[in-house]
Amino acid sequence: MHNPGNATPDRFPAQERFEEGAQFIAGRPARGTSGRTHTVVDPASGEEVLRYELAGTDDVDRAVAAAREAFPGWAATTPGERSDALHRFAAVLADRAEDFARAESLQCGKPLKLSREFDVPGTIDNTAFFAGAARHLQGQSAGEYSGDHTSYIRREPIGVVGSIAPWNYPLQMAAWKVLPAIAAGNTVVLKPAELTPLTSLLFAQAATDAGIPDGVINIVTGTGREAGEHLVGHPDVAMTSFTGSTAVGKRVAEIATATVKRLHLELGGKAPFVVFDDVDLEAAAHGAVAGALINTGQDCTAATRAYVQRPLYDAFVERTAGLMETVRLGDPFAAGTDLGPLISHGQRDRVAGFVDRARAYARVVTGGEAPEGELAKGAYYRPTLIADAPQDSEVVQSEIFGPVLVVLPFDTDDEGLALANDTPYGLAASAWSRDVYRANRATREIKAGCVWVNDHIPIISEMPHGGYKSSGCGKDMSAYSFEEYTQIKHVMFDNTAVAAKDWHRTVFGTDSRLQAA
Ligand code: NAD
């Protein structure tokens, strides 16, 4: 018999942990008041994890009001005080690491080893990084640039930041949105994806338990159309920070622009993986499989288009397909599992649709189907390699967001780099070569916010993440993110102490100093 809400308590007791509701406003849990509910489903089993009341516009209003009320006090704290609070926050997250890993794996279907070794430690490290960075806001030095004035720069928080996050890395996306914002003195209302609210709520609770004041971090879990659009258009929200698809990003940009907000967009990707003919084939094939399949391919920087120089093409296709077949699909909580399901059955069907349509114009070398047997009830899809697709086909041009790698050949270096740049996206890319000049040329010519050489995927708190072209604008992580979450004020002091200043000639029509004399 189906037992709503209690199907997965041994994995993470979501129903019990969120019995007070799946909103977090002014330092405490609350219930959404939209009048509608949403059910979080374990994509590995199809079982219900949590049924909760969605946020409506009134909940967004209350969260924005709480953030607005908290803003002056939080903005007035010293960088050292914010740093202390973030250090405490990092310590609470570290204490609860296993809780976070289990909740993340349950709601996303990620293998527990990925949550434990990537999502959770990455988030703790990010929190520790911003604890340090809070004390190092940079600017140009003060000086007498005009000769008659002292100029200096103030770097100030913007106010209430309205953030919207996707479902693929819910904890890390919450951290990337919240941490630089609050380190700089802003307060935040975050709307996670309605499919994956658990770890954002745990994150906000951990902040409160670490002593971060009520209202500094608020979470509203509602739909994009209702809660999301209301947050973006809200007159008391000074900035919108959005991570998600390019299509929704365009809609968000329209609303934010109409209300003249600071806008930060982290959008879709279709990362090229360029393999030159001098490469170590084993290294490139392993890199392609790991880079394409991490998080079941639901990664905005995942390797999606491998361009392989002609002499290596056939061998690369064969070796990469063979390695894909060794990756073990299974229960995300089982020790032997490498790859979990997609986020939902809907997403699985969407991915299958791309692959099925590709059969008419390309070769599906391996995968291309959902597994049968025990895994059939989950949203699983086999790792898939597609060869010989035309450059202008949809599997090469569109973001599939699943465990699918497309491999294409190229002849000259010029052609390989031109093909790599030939999509609307520009989030990430990699170049594979043992020739330093070739690799260096690729890093210059590929238009993307990150280019790896002889690797694909690693990120680090000290370095920025963000897109070129239709992949968005602005940076997450690193000190560069403060450019998004602060505004720069120029303060200019007169040093002459004279009533009639030299430049007044432009108004008085004569030499103002002579007139004064
Ligand atoms: P999505 O665009 O469908 O949704 C993202 C968020 O926007 C969700 O919280 C959703 O509820 C909300 N939303 C939906 N419609 C909205 C609207 N009209 N107004 C306001 N908010 C709205 O994306 P997704 O399917 O959740 O995530 C996958 C996408 O995210 C992929 O395109 C992926 O590349 C992208 N992504 C980008 C990065 C990056 O750093 N560039 C990181 C992770 C994911």
UniProtKB/TrEMBL annotation:
SUPFAM superfamilies documented for this protein: ALDH-like (SSF53720)
Domain of life: Bacteria
GO molecular function, one term: oxidoreductase activity, acting on the aldehyde or oxo group of donors, NAD or NADP as acceptor
Keyword DNA damage: no
Entry keyword set: Oxidoreductase
Aldehyde dehydrogenase domain residues: 34-491
CDD domains, sorted: ALDH_ABALDH-YdcW
Active site feature: 266
Family the entry assigns: Belongs to the aldehyde dehydrogenase family.
Protein name: Gamma-aminobutyraldehyde dehydrogenase
Organism (species): Streptomyces tuirus
